[in-house]
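Suppose you are handed a protein chain with no further information: no name, no annotation, nothing but its sequence. What can you learn? This example shows the usual starting point.
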Amino acid sequence: MAGHARYTALLDACVLFPVAVCDSLMSVAATGLYAPKWTQRIEDEWTRSLEQKSGRPPGSYAVRRDAMRDAAPDWEVPKQAWMRIAPCLQLPDPDDVHVLAAAIAGHADCIVTANLKDFPEDALAPFGIQVIHPDEFLVAQMDLDPLSVLAAFKEQRARLKNPAYTPSAFADALERNALVLTAQRLREAAALI
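A reasonable first move is to predict its three-dimensional structure. Written in structure tokens, the prediction is:
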């Protein structure tokens, strides 16, 4: 499996579960600034969690899952790639080992997660992988290419029709989903989104 020319981020299930966070990450990925990756196991985790939380039957989030796959055709880190690496790794929570293994197998530059404490720097440093909160990750993307990222957020906001969101309400929704710095940046650039 070859590496990637673009910056590559392994997206943890906890950032794919909340719609606002996931949609923000996928919208920015559509700009081409980074390549998003995840595994079938990560995908199963966020869909199962959403189904349980909402009380909906299995398969209820297939449309969302398929839209994400379509938006990032090279999304999958195959099981056979990360499974060979996983037994060699240790993390505070053994359930997170597959995420680090997938990041290594997928040639990821970082793991985007809200659970930073689960991925200590000393465990990731030997592999050249950073761990970053989705809020900091999105702000970093904005710093790299403000116009492309603001355009992506503008398109994301435009997709919200029921109800429609003003730039301020959109920023508030992101803030409620722990994207505080991102929301602040969007408020500063409200005329562009």
